[in-house]
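hi! just following up on the protien thing from before. the input was this:
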Amino acid sequence: MTEVEVVVAHNECATVRVGEVFLKSDADQSKTDVEVEALELLMEEDSSGGGEARVWPVRVRNSPRVYEISAPADWTRLVEKYPLAVTESRRSVWFDTTGEYCNWLIPDWAAVAEDYDAAHLSLHGYLTTPGIAIPLSGNERATLLGGWDPDATFWLNADALAIDDEPVLWRRADERWERL
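and the predicted 3d structure came back as:
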């Protein structure tokens, strides 16, 4: 596993070292210093242990409606507008993670898809939002963002994308991903 270290982090900015690469993420996305191709491979949260990956270059059609998650408040607004109760399936797992016993909610993705084509978790959002119990309005209700990788986009409408080319093959070598 590549060593990951948070060098600096606060509400507006975070710098992360991944192996030999430093990534600066800012709440103002125009100030991000390094743009890395296939960031999901570089900062994979839950590796399947595979040594190869294919990354398809895609083109976004028209102007998709993308919900940006750059901070816990963004996730909270999404869950409160499109609530889906998941208490029964998440209660013990999220209690083990947070120590909080709550009525847990996540976004109802089918409902979100009526208003948005995708949801994007920025690098800054990834560093500030996952794994914490985020209180919602009303007593004993909370949410948790889990299972996302940094800079991930979940496309809710396949018509918003077009595959532009053949996939690019990447291979893990000495704890690093190399483009072939």
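The first helix runs from residue 39 to 42.
The longest strand covers residues 4-9.
cheers
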